[in-house]
Design goal:
Strand order of the largest sheet: 3-4-2-1-5-6
Structural class: alpha/beta
Largest sheet: 6 strands, mixed
Shape: globular
Distance between the termini: 13 Å
Number of strands: 6
Length: about 90
Amino acid sequence: MIVDVILGNNIDTVMWIRDLQENEVECIIVVDYEYDNDPLNIEGVVYMSPIQAQKYIRKFDKINYYKSLYAYPGMQGNMSCLHKKDKN
């Protein structure tokens, strides 16, 4: 199984989620560094704390990490995956 992990819940997180959902990914997790409650599933996207995510993603065979950045007016560019990790 593959999990797509967005690191951070910032202004461009919605763009990442939309892009991943359009590509019909299996599982999307948003690691929210300010969230400290139980994991929250909103429309198929799971929001959780870093500690919860660290434990949860261990069950997946492949993990794709994406970095959510603060965006400023005038910023341009394509979103790209920063790191892909295969368990072999």
